[in-house]
Design goal:
- The chain is mostly helical.
- It has one domain (2-97, 116-154).
- Helix content is 76%, strand content 0%.
- The chain contains 6 helices and no strands.
- The protein has helices at 2-30, 32-35, 45-69, 74-99, 116-122, 127-154.
- α3 runs parallel beside α6 (127-154) and α4 runs antiparallel to α6.
- The longest helix has 29 residues, at 2-30.
- The radius of gyration is 18 Å and the shape is elongated.
Length: 157
């Protein structure tokens, strides 16, 4: 049981680290002018086109690590990770949905030269993205865990 919990935590930590590193590189590659619509912190289609596959890849890495860490019960760790991703993702999407206010004044324009961490805090994504991310996470974690199971089944004993 402990290895399953450690597998889930290790998989989630791997996802977080992968997202931080890859999104920082993406931010540096695209720049503020291509990541945000002019004068706003609303993400562009260019950002979404690059970030959604990175989310899927991050979840696959997390699923692979969860299955690897809990060697005796990899299915349980991957399913646990999927549950965590769906639960936290749904919570984040609901929080964003409840926080959307039609009469709220627009946020001030972003400062020039914003760093990746500040951009992550201030960025605004479409609501549909918040609902897609948990699904991408679940699919990616399942895929990564499945890859690990295939690798383990082919390894000599």
């Amino acid at each position: 049981m402990l290895r399953i919990v450690v597998g889930v935590l290790a998989g989630y930590a791997a996802i977080a680290l992968f997202i931080m590193a890859s999104f920082t590189l993406l931010w540096l590659g695209l720049g503020q002018e291509r990541a945000f619509h002019p004068g706003t912190t609303q993400v562009t289609w260019s950002w979404l086109a690059a970030s959604l596959p990175l989310n899927l890849l991050a979840a696959a890495v997390g699923g692979w690590i969860a299955a690897r860490v809990s060697a005796q019960r990899p299915h349980s760790a991957v399913l646990g990770l999927i549950g965590v991703l769906l639960l936290l993702g749904a919570w984040a999407a609901l929080s964003q949905a409840v926080g959307v206010q039609g009469d709220a004044p627009p946020p001030p324009p972003p400062p020039e030269g914003m760093g990746p961490m500040e951009a992550a805090r201030q960025s605004v994504q479409p609501l549909w993205v918040a609902w897609v991310l948990p699904i991408l996470g679940a699919v990616g974690a399942w895929f990564g865990g499945s890859l690990r199971l295939i690798q383990a089944s082919r390894a000599p004993r």
